[in-house]
């Protein structure tokens, strides 16, 4: 199997299209113990790379510092959907959408707890920023998708051309950096921000293969180091025990440097217990979304007991599995009424992921290692309640819109666990991507974007707005630093 790490290092599978980490970057590490640039960007994810390109195109000299030996963040794992409204592509494909509707949904999905100013900023910029990705970076998009909530045609999907959309996006961004000669230094980990006597951030102390090295920044430092989903200790600290058992869906290397670097400066942290949850199968990293979101079937724990309403979204199902089952493990049971059942099982098998198939409910129960009577009773109870229109009276209720009976073999059991996609908490930013203090003042010279920044998301997010947020605020941070450059 090709790991993402190998993929990024330019494995045989992608070498025909050129390595993702261009050799030119590797050669740029400078043995000197300090260096100066206009801006210093920490982290080679979407936010950091976008900021570097924008800053360069505005006439600045940026440098990107990445702690790993490849662009190791969550961007690489992303499906590559970016949610936007009113784009030329939406119009061309016949999808009308208003700014107000998009904004209202962003607020609604956050239970009105997202910072309205940041949401407004997203909504104002995303359309233009998406066009910029096409024109300045060369990113190509496939047809717009109608997913996920609230099922409108907003999802602009990066055309992965054989890679995941996120990996393709990173590859395109890296190429744009290389084309412009923007330095990107790997194995360079930001350890501490440097301030001057006016409490202005003027650089960063890093550790490199050659030891300590300071990078000074005339116009600002951008924290684009992602969130802390890769740090079990921080998940436990900010979210509590059961949630620290969520299976990691993304990068193990986003380990909370957004907090560690900015805490000594008194940054204001917001939404620290907030995150996005999604389903995953831990052993193979398979994403079973397409099965558990099928709109038919029931969900049970390892004892064969239902524990949630099947109307739940994939996010809610993942959360319920993590918090209501001691093992953080559930099975989606489905029968052959679902026309895609056989092909879904095939897809699981192709992903080398366990799926149980049986001709009868009893046999399925045996394969799950439980008493066959458990499924005989459960399936009979479900089918009876469905026939009598009493599904919502079950405990827990089943509120599916178009449920089908469970009586047509073969029967399938698809395993899934609750996983964490990304954390939403971090240093609060304002509309200019400046990091704020507890006293609600911007810290001079310090910016944050992407999952490193706090304020834009709470509770959940409209699929595609995380990459979108990294794009919008990465560009804004670069523009702000360019402004500061011009003002001297
Ligand atoms: C399975 C999955 C699917 C997803 N799909 C989507 C999707 O389709 N649409 C969407 O909008 N969002 C999606 N997301 C979320 C999205 O991937 C993230 O929101 C986004 O990639 C964050 O980008 P970023 O630039 O903030 O950080 P990252 O991409 O995480 O990059 C951070 C970088 O900083 C580096 N770094 C960390 N600490 C330091 C340090 N001290 N010094 C130097 N470098 C450092 C890391 O190594 C990393 O390379 C998905 C996430 C997952 C896990």
List its salient traits.
single chain, 488 residues, alpha/beta, FAD/NAD(P)-binding domain, Flavocytochrome C3, Chain A, domain 1, 2 domains, eight-stranded mixed β-sheet, six-stranded mixed β-sheet, 19 strands, 33% helix, elongated, disordered N terminus, binds flavin-adenine dinucleotide
Number of helices: 16
Question: How far apart lie the N and C ends?
Answer: 52 Å
Calculate the mean pLDDT score and round it.
Answer: 92
- Write down the Rg: 24 Å
Number of strands: 19
Domain count: the total is 2
Helix content class: 25-40%
CATH superfamily of the largest domain: FAD/NAD(P)-binding domain
What would you call the structural class? alpha/beta
Strand content: 15-25%
Shape summary? elongated
Instruction: Indicate the CATH topology of the largest domain.
Output: FAD/NAD(P)-binding domain
Heterogens = flavin-adenine dinucleotide
CATH architecture of the largest domain: 3-Layer(bba) Sandwich
Low-confidence stretches: 1-30
CATH class of the largest domain: Alpha Beta
Descriptive overview:
It contains 16 helices and 19 strands. The protein is of the alpha/beta class. It has two domains: 1-274 and 424-488, 3-Layer(bba) Sandwich (FAD/NAD(P)-binding domain); 282-420, Succinate dehydrogenase/fumarate reductase flavoprotein, catalytic domain (Flavocytochrome C3, Chain A, domain 1, Alpha-Beta Complex), CATH 3.90.700. Strands 1, 2, 6, 7, 8, 9, 18 and 19 form an eight-stranded mixed beta sheet that branches. Strands 10, 12, 13, 14, 15 and 16 form a six-stranded mixed beta sheet that branches. Strand 4 (145-146) and strand 5 (153-157) form a beta hairpin. Helix 6 (99-109) crosses helix 7 (116-137) and helix 7 (116-137) packs across helix 16. The longest helix has 22 residues, at 116-137. The chain is elongated, with a radius of gyration of 24 Å. The N and C termini lie far apart (52 Å). Residues 42-48, 65-68, 71-75, 77-81, 166, 189-190, 224-226, 249-251, 253-254, 257, 421-422, 450-452, 464-468, 470 line the site of flavin-adenine dinucleotide.
């Amino acid at each position: 199997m090709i790991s993402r790490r190998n993929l990024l290092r330019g494995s045989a599978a992608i070498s025909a299209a050129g390595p993702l980490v261009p050799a030119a970057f590797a050669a740029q590490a400078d043995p000197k113990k300090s260096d100066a640039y206009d801006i210093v960007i920490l982290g080679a994810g979407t936010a950091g790379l976008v900021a570097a390109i924008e800053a360069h195109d505005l006439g600045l000299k940026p440098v990107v510092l990445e702690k790993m030996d490849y662009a190791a963040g969550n961007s690489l794992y992303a499906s590559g959907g970016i949610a936007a409204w009113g784009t030329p592509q939406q119009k061309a494909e016949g999808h009308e959408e208003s700014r107000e509707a998009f904004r209202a949904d962003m607020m609604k999905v956050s239970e009105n707890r997202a910072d309205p100013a940041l949401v407004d900023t997203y909504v104002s910029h995303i359309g233009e920023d998406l066009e910029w990705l096409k024109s300045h970076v060369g990113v190509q998009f496939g047809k717009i998708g109608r997913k996920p909530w609230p099922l409108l045609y907003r999802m602009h999907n990066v055309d992965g051309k054989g890679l995941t959309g996120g990996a393709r996006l990173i590859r395109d961004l890296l190429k744009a950096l290389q084309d412009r000669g923007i330095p990107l230094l790997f194995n360079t980990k930001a350890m501490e921000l440097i301030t001057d006597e006016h409490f202005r951030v003027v650089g960063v102390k890093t550790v490199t293969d050659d030891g300590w090295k300071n990078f000074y920044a005339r116009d600002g430092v951008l924290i684009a180091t992602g969130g802390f989903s890769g740090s079990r200790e921080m998940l436990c600290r900010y979210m509590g025990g059961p949630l620290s058992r969520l299976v990691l869906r993304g990068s193990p290397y986003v380990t909370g440097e957004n907090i560690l670097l900015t805490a000594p400066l008194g940054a204001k942290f917001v939404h620290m217990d907030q995150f996005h949850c999604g389903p995953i199968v831990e052993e193979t990293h398979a994403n079973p979304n397409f099965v558990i979101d099928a709109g038919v079937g029931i969900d049970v724990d390892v004892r064969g007991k239902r524990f949630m309403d099947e109307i739940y979204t994939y996010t809610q199902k993942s959360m319920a599995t993590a918090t209501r089952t001691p093992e953080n493990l559930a099975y989606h049971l489905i029968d052959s009424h679902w026309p895609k059942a056989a092909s879904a099982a095939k897809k699981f098998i192709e992903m080398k992921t366990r799926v149980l198939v049986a001709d009868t409910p009893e046999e399925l129960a045996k394969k799950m290692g439980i008493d066959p009577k458990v499924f005989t009773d459960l399936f009979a109870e479900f089918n009876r309640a469905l026939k009598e229109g009493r599904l919502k009276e079950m405990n827990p209720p089943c509120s599916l819109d178009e449920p089908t009976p469970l009586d047509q073999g073969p029967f399938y059991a698809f395993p899934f666990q609750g996983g964490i996609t990304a954390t939403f908490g971090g240093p609060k930013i304002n509309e200019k991507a400046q990091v704020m203090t507890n006293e609600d003042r911007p810290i001079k010279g310090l910016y944050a974007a992407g999952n490193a920044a706090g304020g834009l998301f709470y509770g959940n997010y409209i699929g595609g707005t995380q990459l979108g947020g990294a794009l919008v605020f990465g560009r804004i941070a670069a523009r702000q630093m360019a402004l500061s450059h011009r003002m001297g």
